[in-house]
């Protein structure tokens, strides 16, 4: 007989079990959150992955999100001192009749890590490990890291990947219902200021003012350009 001291006597447990059974019938599954681990610098990510490798969780699926400056292996783009992001986009769009061979080999990297995981040989890795493997397989480490995020339990990245909404959108990062860990979180204020700050020289301001003068004098979107001209004038 049900006892009088616990919930089973009131039928609450039965209702709970019925609710669970209903969820199971509907195919509902418990969503397991990802852990987003944010650090101030890429060097700190190297230190943390090194420590992760020493733990019992070394084989947990993971990935590291970083910029093309650290992960691009294209010989022309990676050696360039100009904007690597723009050069990469141009290659992907094939604007000059050229495409990126390494981008088309992204699946080689992601499949390799899946194979390693299936044989329980996968260990925590660093950006340099992924780049080295990318060169070996002739596969883009930048986009492979993004693909690995889909099946990763832990995602390591710099602060700005979590703080900047534009970066979150471009990297398809959704933090709703996820676990966010910020290493040395007292640096967050500085990182937040940097993500919404931009530096310009006085020459750039004067050049912008001259262009805006030209726009206003020629009645080109005058209502939009006049306030901008006023800002440039006040700053100079």
Structure in words:
- With 236 residues, the chain is α/β, with parallel strands linked by helices.
- It has 2 domains: 35-196, P-loop containing nucleotide triphosphate hydrolases (Rossmann fold), CATH 3.40.50.300; 202-235, no CATH class.
- 53% of the residues lie in helices and 7% in strands.
- It is built from 13 helices and 4 strands.
- The chain has a 4-stranded parallel sheet with strand order 2-3-1-4.
- Helix 12 (202-217) runs antiparallel to helix 13 (222-235).
- The N and C termini lie far apart (86 Å).
- Residues 1-232 form the Helicase ATP-binding domain.
Low-confidence stretches: 12-16
Return the CATH architecture of the largest domain. 3-Layer(aba) Sandwich
Q: Label the structural class.
A: alpha/beta
Count helical runs. 13
So what's the CATH class of the largest domain? Alpha Beta
Query: Sheet bearing the most strands, described?
Result: 4 strands, parallel
Short account of what is shown:
With 236 residues, the chain is α/β, with parallel strands linked by helices. 53% of the residues lie in helices and 7% in strands. The protein is globular, with a radius of gyration of 26 Å.
